[in-house]
Task: inverse folding
């Protein structure tokens, strides 16, 4: 394949030989210049001086002697003028978005040589339009009139009034802005272009450093470029090479040839040129692939590339992957097969997708959410602290970070002080409060500097890449700080953070690599004037290529068209040209699009594909790529008791066991045998989470601790109604505070500070404690025998013809003595507990729906007491269900077949028989740990992701 650039290079070398260095060759982009240089070196068998190779923007800056100023700085200057003319009190943060739009509009006005006074006039007096714009065509005048007809001065809406108000001052802002920029030596691209065009139109001579300028591969030209082209053409100092195909050039209505037709007419190519432009209809292998997702598009390229020989890809014109949606860059890079050794990316990698951007975002969030108390002591919210400590730049390099995270989680620390977080040089730089944007620049730069040098001592595979990320961010913040320092504008702290984030979003980090070797991964703009034999073009969707949206503008569509400014049709023609120009010399073309409709995406293939199918004679093949994503039938999980599991179960056996089965563990086995295995055999503990709000489990713990603290002074003593009355009046608040401090690991001397829902929860807690004491006063006097006593016993069962002793241990909330009988009291703070059950067997049945865990647990506590003390008195099991405590007929007794259980001893034999049966099953080597059949039990299970339930 002979590419367009290769043919142009050959012609120019033939025409100029060694004198080619006298010329300046101008391209639409830098990538084309690299290819030209390669082809020129191939044409000559002797060393020669290369010509000057520049882009059109670089040429404009060279002629004017001025470089375009950074956009941030320009918007600051624009803000000053806007605020002064509009007498506005808008903050810079509010203005920034509109400032970008305004700057873009001024850029267009200058590049297309539109008179700003005329376009920004209030032309509601329609009769003046034809007089003022007699140089325009009738269709342009009609467009302008259509726009202003919607503005009736007598019936302005509020939005129209605001529009006209802004519109009326834009011309003045434009003039003052240019005036100010000239004073300070600053400029924007359009202003540079216009100043050159004005000089030409005023018959001034331009300072040109070359005798000849050769323009290669251009398409749409703005009015300033046309003025320059005319000037150089008239002076016989320019040649023009246009890249096109007769297929769309000869069709007058074809949008791809819209600009080229005019360009060839006004700036014809050199007479010596003999390049052929009839390539589109030559034989091509064209495939269309539709996939069900964007990731599917990226994955679809792998089989297309697997057959490529690495020796073949040394030719930079051989293979290219074109991304019309540049967000697919990372998925595409991961999808390129490992067999492809050389890949050249010309697009740059977004800084916002790097680890350092995520790290800085976390630091910014930290600063935004610092808490300051009445004594000006600062504290940091645990979520932001943990996200920073867990980041790869901290956690991978500082072992103390992991220890601190464990401490925060274990002790439920919601807010942390600076001293607690001062564990290393980097954390000491991160965890303190910044008050203004001047300090935050210094603060961020200091952190980045520390990280950069830390990475120097790290011999990781990605060290250089990570340092490159940090370096680019460092330079960005430094430049922003310099602009802010010279602007004399005070901005808010949040404005600075928003501004920094906006700038980072637009920065790309250039990839390093051999630019003229390997598979080329490119954006559509980089392809101008370059040809490839094998093409893969992704995101060939309507709305993406071509785009259906235009940039934001103060200048409405009708006025844009009326004044010949770029509008949506302009954009369509440009992208149509890019598409056809890419295809014209290619031999193998694969066009991929996402066929799924999701959100704003319709799943429709691009109109360009439709045009290609109907306009050309190529046999285009269409394939639908689908993936089998149906789920397989779920297999039940069952764990066989192997030697390792049996060894762990043996820890619960014998005279001196190392572990004990709790009532909760047996309850868990009855609910789901597999869950019991995960928790007590495999040792998969539930993830520890910090609690910002008091959850049900914590609420229960606090109530248990509070009741324990209230009754501990009466341990071994009899409590009267007067004692309970005194407790209610004097010690509830103090006991709740102590219980809260214990639960949240707060030092005794520190004050409890609750906020949000926790204040309400505390009031509910206080109410429940009072209600529990109210119930107790009905049964007073009674003697407190034990509080949170831990008892254990051994149950002997026969398993596989062998008798074994199984150790069981449990903590009883309260043991008291009343009316010569022992009560075993269990507090329940969860959902209301039913104390009625048909028979004991149902407590042990996995198949029994709504099996009563609370009754089982209370009876097992009763057995523990009975086995340990064998009292002569009766043992009455009871449940204080806090949710039922306000019931008028509240009763703590359990009931079997509607009969109160007043003495556990009467049911011990039956309960023990059922308990022994289930214990024997747990230790039976032939019984597997299987999943429950009741899916409801899985709803809130910590292990449901393992089971796929």
Result:
């Amino acid at each position: 394949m002979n590419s367009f650039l290769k043919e142009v290079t050959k012609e120019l070398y033939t025409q100029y030989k060694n004198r080619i260095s006298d010329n300046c060759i101008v391209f639409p982009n830098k990538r084309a210049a690299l290819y030209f240089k390669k082809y020129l070196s191939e044409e000559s068998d002797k060393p020669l001086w290369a010509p000057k190779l520049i882009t059109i923007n670089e040429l404009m800056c060279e002629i004017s002697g001025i470089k375009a100023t950074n956009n941030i700085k320009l918007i600051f200057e624009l803000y000053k003028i806007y605020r002064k003319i509009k007498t506005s009190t808008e903050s810079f943060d509010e203005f920034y978005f509109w400032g970008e739009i305004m700057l873009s509009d001024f850029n267009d006005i200058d590049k297309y040589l539109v008179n700003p006074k005329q376009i920004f006039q209030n032309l509601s007096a329609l009769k003046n339009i034809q007089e003022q714009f007699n140089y325009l065509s009738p269709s342009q005048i009609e467009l302008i009139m259509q726009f202003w007809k919607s503005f009736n001065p007598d019936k302005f809406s509020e939005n129209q009034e605001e529009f006209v108000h802004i519109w009326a001052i834009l011309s003045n802002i434009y003039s003052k802005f240019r005036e100010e920029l000239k004073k300070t030596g600053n400029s924007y691209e359009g202003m540079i272009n216009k100043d050159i065009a004005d000089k030409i139109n005023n018959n001034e001579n331009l300072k040109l450093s070359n005798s000849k300028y050769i323009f290669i591969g251009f398409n749409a030209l703005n009015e300033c470029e046309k003025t320059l082209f005319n000037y150089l053409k008239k002076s016989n100092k320019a040649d023009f090479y246009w890249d096109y195909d007769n297929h769309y050039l000869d069709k007058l209505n074809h949008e791809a040839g819209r600009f080229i037709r005019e360009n060839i007419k006004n700036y014809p190519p050199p007479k010596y040129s003999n390049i052929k432009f009839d390539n589109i209809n030559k034989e091509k292998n064209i495939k269309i692939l539709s996939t069900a997702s964007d990731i599917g598009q990226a994955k679809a390229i792998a089989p297309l590339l697997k057959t490529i020989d690495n020796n073949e890809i040394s030719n930079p014109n051989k293979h290219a992957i074109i991304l019309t949606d540049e967000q697919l860059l990372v998925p595409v890079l991961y999808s390129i097969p490992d067999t492809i050794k050389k890949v050249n990316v010309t697009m740059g990698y977004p800084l916002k997708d790097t680890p350092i951007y995520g790290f800085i975002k976390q630091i910014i969030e930290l600063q935004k959410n610092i808490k300051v108390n009445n004594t000006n002591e600062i504290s940091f919210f645990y979520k932001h602290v943990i996200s920073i400590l867990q980041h790869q730049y901290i956690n991978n390099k500082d072992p103390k970070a992991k220890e601190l995270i464990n401490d925060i989680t274990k002790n439920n620390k919601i807010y942390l002080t600076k001293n607690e977080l001062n564990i290393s040089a980097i954390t000491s730089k991160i965890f303190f409060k910044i008050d203004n944007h001047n300090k935050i620049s210094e603060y961020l730069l200091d952190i980045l500097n520390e990280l950069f040098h830390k990475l120097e001592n790290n011999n990781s595979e990605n060290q250089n890449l990570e340092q490159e990320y940090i370096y680019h961010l460092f330079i960005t913040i430094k430049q922003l700080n310099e602009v802010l320092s010279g602007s004399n504008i005070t901005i808010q702290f949040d404005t600075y953070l928003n501004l920094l984030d906006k700038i980072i979003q637009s920065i790309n980090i250039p990839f390093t690599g051999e630019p003229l070797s390997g598979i080329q991964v490119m954006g559509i703009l980089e392809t101008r004037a370059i040809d490839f034999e094998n093409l893969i073009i992704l995101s060939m969707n309507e709305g993406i290529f071509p785009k259906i949206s235009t940039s934001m503008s103060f200048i409405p569509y009708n006025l844009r068209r009326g004044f010949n400014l770029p509008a949506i049709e302009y954009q369509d023609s440009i992208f149509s040209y890019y598409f056809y120009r890419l295809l014209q010399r290619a031999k193998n073309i694969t066009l991929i699009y996402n066929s799924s409709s999701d959100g704003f995406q319709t799943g429709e293939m691009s109109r360009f594909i439709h045009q290609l199918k109907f306009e050309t004679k190529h046999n285009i093949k269409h394939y639908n790529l689908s993936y089998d994503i149906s789920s397989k039938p779920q297999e039940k999980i069952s764990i066989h008791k192997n030697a390792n599991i049996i060894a762990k179960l043996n820890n619960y056996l014998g005279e001196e066991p190392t572990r004990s089965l709790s009532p909760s563990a047996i309850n868990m086995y009855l609910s789901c045998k597999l869950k019991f295995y995960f928790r007590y055999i495999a040792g998969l503990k539930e993830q520890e989470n910090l609690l910002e709000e008091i959850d049900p489990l914590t609420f229960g713990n606090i109530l248990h601790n509070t009741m324990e603290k209230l009754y501990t002074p009466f341990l071994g003593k009899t409590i009267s109604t007067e004692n309970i009355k005194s407790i209610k009046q004097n010690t509830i608040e103090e006991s709740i505070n102590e219980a809260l401090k214990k639960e949240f690991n707060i030092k005794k001397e520190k004050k409890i500070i609750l906020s949000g829902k926790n204040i309400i929860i505390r009031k509910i807690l206080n109410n429940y404690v009072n209600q529990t004491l109210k119930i107790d006063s009905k049964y007073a006097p009674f003697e407190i025998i034990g509080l949170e006593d831990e008892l254990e016993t051994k149950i002997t069962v026969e398993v596989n013809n062998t008798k074994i002793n199984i150790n069981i241990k449990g903590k009883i909330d309260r043991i008291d003595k009343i009316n010569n009988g022992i009560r075993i009291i269990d507090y329940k703070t969860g959902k209301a507990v039913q104390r009625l059950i048909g028979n004991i067997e149902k407590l042990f049945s996995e198949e029994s729906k709504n099996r009563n865990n609370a009754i089982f647990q209370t009876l097992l506590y009763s057995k523990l007491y009975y086995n340990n003390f064998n009292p002569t008195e009766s043992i009455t099991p009871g449940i204080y269900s806090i949710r039922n405590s306000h019931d008028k007929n509240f009763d703590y007794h359990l009931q079997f077949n509607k009969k109160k259980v007043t003495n556990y001893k009467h049911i011990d034999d039956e309960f023990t028989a059922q308990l022994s049966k289930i214990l024997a099953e747990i230790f039976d080597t032939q019984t597997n740990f299987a999943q429950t059949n009741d899916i409801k039990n899985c709803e809130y299970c910590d292990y449901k992701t393992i089971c796929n339930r």
